[in-house]
Amino acid sequence: xxxxxxxxxxxxxxxxxxxxxIHITKSEIFALIGANGAGKSSTIMSIAGHVSVKSGKIIxxxxxxxxxxxxKRVQLGIALAPEGRRLFTDMxxxxxxxxxxxxxxxxxxxxxxxKVLELFPRxxxxxxxxxxxxxxxxxQMLAIGRALMAEPELLIIDELSLxxxxxxxxxxxxxxxxxxQQGVTILLxxxxxxxxxxxxxxxxxxxxxxDVWQGTAKNARxxxxxxxxxxxxxxxxxxxxxxxx
Length: 245
Ligand SMILES: Nc1ncnc2c1ncn2[C@@H]1O[C@H](COP(=O)(O)OP(=O)(O)OP(=O)(O)O)[C@@H](O)[C@H]1O
Ligand SMILES: [Mg+2]
Hints:
Layout: E1 2-11, E2 14-24, E3 29-34, H1 40-48, E4 52-60, E5 63-64, H2 70-76, E6 78-81, H3 93-100, H4 106-119, H5 121-125, H6 136-148, E7 154-158, H7 166-181, E8 185-189, H8 193-199, E9 202-207, E10 210-216, H9 217-221, H10 224-239
This protein binds adenosine-5'-triphosphate and magnesium ion (MG).
């Protein structure tokens, strides 16, 4: 589905990701994990086309999209729910959803909207309310819903659980599992390591723009050295509720 081949990317003269190679297969949940500033958002923003690639390649469904414009990547099947959600706050839930599928014919727009509201019934209850007055959890649902409006084959979500209550995190993760069952491939950025290890098939741990570990979540859970060196702090925070508040 998605191959990053020795991808280096960054901002201006600054390279923040160095020769990162990742392979994500269809219908899997792949989690990018790492501390603040590790380069998680930069990696996914380069996949979506918002951060410039300095060297290496991004291959999506066998097509080299390294230089493909953002809108074309959306049409090819890549959608992003970005860090901070970036909703159109002065628009309603309904209008935000419509923006996510703006290039589609009305029939498909309606069908996709129905599917999103089935996945997140809460959005249906808030459909005519302005995005700015939604709770954090509802805003996250709307950000994911808006991304889904474009019928993605690859859904990328940055910081799925950040700042959300445990109950809402459960809802979001249930939605992710449902989407995966429907055949959507999911690339997650998550600082809540315990959650990521529970739900992901495979993970990549980033540190200072380089991958320090890649493998199955199962192997990660059984690797005390990895947990102590790279995942321990987040797990402790999670156990204490620090990341979920
Ligand atoms: N727009 C930008 N211009 C310059 N440098 C940036 C920009 N955005 C991010 N960086 C730098 O790139 C590096 C990686 O940042 P990035 O946001 O990708 O990390 P992250 O893993 O997503 O962190 P966080 O967990 O805080 O979201 C950091 O050193 C950061 O300061
Ligand atoms: Mg980030």
